[in-house]
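Bumping with the actual sequence this time:
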Amino acid sequence: MLEEREKKRLAEEQEKQRLAELEKKKADDKRKKELAKQAADEMRNRQEAAADDQLDKVRREKELKRLQSMAGESGAGDAERSSAPKFDASYAAKIAARIKRNTRFLASDAIPGNPTVEYELELLPDGSVKNIKILRESGYPAFDEAVKRAVYSTAPFERDAATGKIPTSITVRQRLKENE
């Protein structure tokens, strides 16, 4: 009788162990399915984001072409840019002065010397900023960023009085301290 109880107890333990392993396998399978679903969702989201980015790019290009056609430019590239009218230095100085007025940077007294940042602005025919490329950093990223923010807050830029057009590209240099 003792032997039968022992066999029964062992059989029950084996059954419990088998059921526990089965539950563990079910939980593992469920976790694997969830991970696979999550990976598929992430892949779909990345693909949707890439498609959205591509659509945005196409829209921007269409808008740029529309603006260029309104301004009488074809956007053909470097050959047309090289034959574009030259803009007066006073125009660049006027733009730089407007940007300087909009620059908010408070640490100027604490910075030694007179750091200078130089940007190339790519403008659209309506005077808005297409792109800002840093040509020379000042060595103070906060100042560089303040000037960049000022460029965006100053835009749109007006037409050059001499040519009646807005340049496609202009270089702006700004010093931290005006009189040094």
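The tokens above came from a reply further down the thread. The helical segments are 2-70, 78-82, 89-102, 141-154.
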